[in-house]
Write a structure and sequence with these properties.
Blueprint lengths: L3 E6 L2 E6 L12 E5 L28 E7 L4 H16 L4 E8 L3 H11 L5 E4 L3 H5 L4 E2 L1 E5 L5 E7 L6 H7 L10
Parallel strand pairs: 2-7, 4-5, 5-6
Antiparallel strand pairs: 1-2, 3-9, 4-8, 8-9
Length: 179
């Protein structure tokens, strides 16, 4: 795992990249953990902030990034523009859903308005979804292939629209037999 500091804030841990913690010249950190073998696929919150309903089965045929975040988490906020750019660019083959941890609808609405976020925001008011997906560090993004199978969890922020991000999501688009 690359060097970084972890800050425990309330219900979760926010990954603060080393560069933000005062280590000049270091890149943001993240790590990738394979999805545990024989683990099931937890449910996701069903409605976003606009009332549209979502389900993983309905997204089969497209890869899915489930991004767990909170507005108090600076690395979470920092990676949102890249997630949004990626979702817009690859919308035919990739869905990006964001899941907000334990914040009020008003706090989410403020963040969406200030940031111009257009990604679906599903609310996890009690943290049940984050627990079910094994998320303890924010941001965390679960990578789900086009067959609906979780493949890995990325803990920490990265540029999803850049080369490092593409190396993680692009393989999710391949049919199972080509992996």
């Amino acid at each position: 795992m690359r060097r970084r500091q972890l800050f425990i804030l309330g219900a979760g841990v926010c990954v603060l990249p080393a560069w933000a913690a005062g280590a000049p010249g270091t890149a943001p950190g993240f790590d990738v953990q394979a999805w545990p073998a024989k683990s099931g696929v937890p449910a996701i919150p069903s409605a976003d902030q606009t009332g549209q309903t979502w389900s993983l089965p309905s997204l089969r045929g497209r890869a899915v990034l489930l991004n767990f975040w909170a507005s108090w988490c600076e690395p979470c906020r920092a990676e949102m523009p890249a997630l949004q750019a990626l979702a817009a660019r690859e919308q035919a083959q990739l869905a990006v859903l964001t899941i907000n941890l334990k914040e009020s609808p008003e706090a989410i609405a403020r963040f969406v308005q200030i940031s111009g976020l257009s990604l679906p925001v599903l609310r996890d008011p009690q943290g049940d979804s984050a627990r079910a997906w094994g998320v303890r560090i924010y941001p965390s993004t679960v990578l789900i292939d086009r067959d609906g199978v979780p493949r890995a969890t990325v803990r920490g922020a990265l540029d999803w629209a850049g080369a490092e991000g593409e190396a993680l999501w692009r393989p999710l688009l391949q049919p199972a037999r080509k992996r």
